[in-house]
Amino acid sequence: MRIRKRRLYFTFGVLSSLIIFLHILGSDIALYGREAEWQSTSLPFIHSQSEGPTFARNRPPEAQSQAPSTSNADDSKKFGWEDLPIRHPVASQIPLPTGKPLKLPKIQYDFKAEDRKAKVVRLRRQSEVKKTFCRCWSSYKQNAWKMDELAPITGRGTESFGGWGATLIDSLDTLWIMEMNDEFEEAVATAAEVDFGPLSPLSDVINVFETNIRLLGGLLSAYDLSDDERLLEKAKEVGNMLYVAFDTPNRMLMTKWRPIPAATGKEQTASESVISAEIGSLSMEFTRLSQITGDGKWFDAIQRITNVFAEQQDQTQLPGMWPVVLNARDMNFTMGSMFTLGAMADSLYEYFPKMYALLGGQLPVYKKLYEGSIKAASESIFFRPMVPGNADILISGEVRTDVKPPELFPHGEHLSCFAGRMLALGGKLFDRGEHIEYGKKLTDGCVWVYKACPLGIMPESFQMLPCADPHDCTWNRDTWESAIFKKSGNWISDLDSAEAQETIANMHIPEGFTSIPDRRYILRPEAIESVFILYRITGDREYQDIAWDMFEAIEKNTKTILGNAGIASVITKEGEDVQLEDRMESFWLAETLKYFYLVFSEVDVISLDDWVSNTEAHPFRRPK
Ligand SMILES: *[C@@H]1O[C@H](CO)[C@@H](O)[C@H](O)[C@H]1NC(C)=O
């Protein structure tokens, strides 16, 4: 997610929206202050290296004395999170469905045999993707082995997710899928040595969501693919650790969790403001862990949260969806006023249809959650932008209900590009043809934005001009020019004047956009993810050509000697060099390159009828 991915942008989003509304909404300033404060307190985790305590990996004696001792006679016995007494046990567990899975509709297109020429092109493209992965992987091995991330320009290793080897564990299943068997074996042996004890993280606060999607998800997926028991053992260790974060009076999750106080038996209480994706996106990983181990405690833990979402789905200010910030302490998920499928919310929604598939259709609540939220999103969040060429596309925006009537913010994000995939999958699973159409148009919208930007790559966030009537949406340059002037605070009466035209040129905003608040591209996967799924669902080979164009643009502009690096601005001026940033997020190897590889694979590799992926692109086996 991908708050993970989502946090920095949030400040931009709030700021830009705030500037617009400040005059109208005096009373909202307090709320903004709280969100902003929340924001700044969440950042240190990302930069935990400088903030975190200095003990960690090698336990110094003074830190050791704080740690609980579960061993009595045998001092060498490892600390086990599962041995920690539970302060707030459940009265009775919500049972994991173990009945016969329903026969769900087929998801993948019925592909016909491929002609020889097409196959040659496909395999050549696939080998280019693999080459890029190999370059990054061997550089990670050489320069940042066992660390969270490789800095692709300076070649340093960085610890951005607690120091448990995020890139190592996140990449396991990609190594398997790319048939890099020796590398996989070496990575599994190394991952099996990672310590998940209470003193192991390099930060005193753990982001449970990130740990869950990258580490637990990565281990479970690699286990599902390879059946290697060492991976299941590690997955259980991580699962037992994260389970402790649910040990609160109301069994709501501590999303920002402190392992050391938890391990010493301190009381924990869930927060009054948690991010919806951070509390709502543990369901797939915890369910899969319960399915594999037969121990239902993990499923019970997430299903209690699902039930709160389900009970309050129609009580929010945008019935069907939930605000991005929720009160977990009072279990009141209805009070916020900002609604989006993008940053901070995304995987909450993404997991509803996927959970339905993972449970073999045995829990109708996930269908209800999906259908209710998509009804609201299609009525209020999706919009058709006015663009040159009049392409019939959709963008997923934001709704704010703190103004009357509630207002659509035509604010697109790279993160929201997963929506095309979600709608196409939901459309297949629940036999809703119109959802597949939405899925196509949302994916086409992301592809349109890629192509409209000078480097052929989408920025983190952008704004467009929604057409009031999606059936009457013809490009009008004057309307666009007035809109960008309004947005930028300029007021020019004569749009055709030399002054006006010069101002427009100086803003460097490609036609069709009204502003570009965050011009970075940080190697994100969501657009190729949707292109890949749409290819597998529709069988339309044009998606492979689209994917190839995207790959070439990204590789050309982000490649470094040591890896691939994020771009500071994808809106370059003519003749200007591309500025790179010294970070290669673990999702580049875990997600982006995996989807680029899979779109050029045989269609039975990770078939959508056998596998369903978590939000970090880790495929879990579907029940048969
Ligand atoms: C949430 O809080 C509001 C305001 O206090 C209250 O009106 C509403 O009933 C609460 N909803 C739930 C589900 O607790």
TrEMBL record:
The keyword Transmembrane helix belongs to this UniProt entry's keyword annotation: no
InterPro entries per UniProt: 6hp_glycosidase-like_sf, Glyco_hydro_47, Glycosyl_Hydrolase_47, Seven-hairpin_glycosidases
Superkingdom classification of source: Eukaryota
Region of interest (Disordered), residue spans: 49-75
Biased composition (Polar residues): 63-73
Cystine connections: 417-446
Positions of the catalytic residues: 210 (proton donor), 346, 460 (proton donor), 526
Listed GO CC annotations: endoplasmic reticulum; membrane
Cofactor(s) in the UniProt record: Ca(2+)
GO BP annotation list: carbohydrate metabolic process; ERAD pathway
Gene3D superfamilies registered for this protein in UniProt: 1.50.10.10
Gene Ontology MF terms in the entry: calcium ion binding; mannosyl-oligosaccharide 1,2-alpha-mannosidase activity
Family label: Belongs to the glycosyl hydrolase 47 family.
The name this protein goes by in its record: alpha-1,2-Mannosidase
Organism: Tothia fuscella
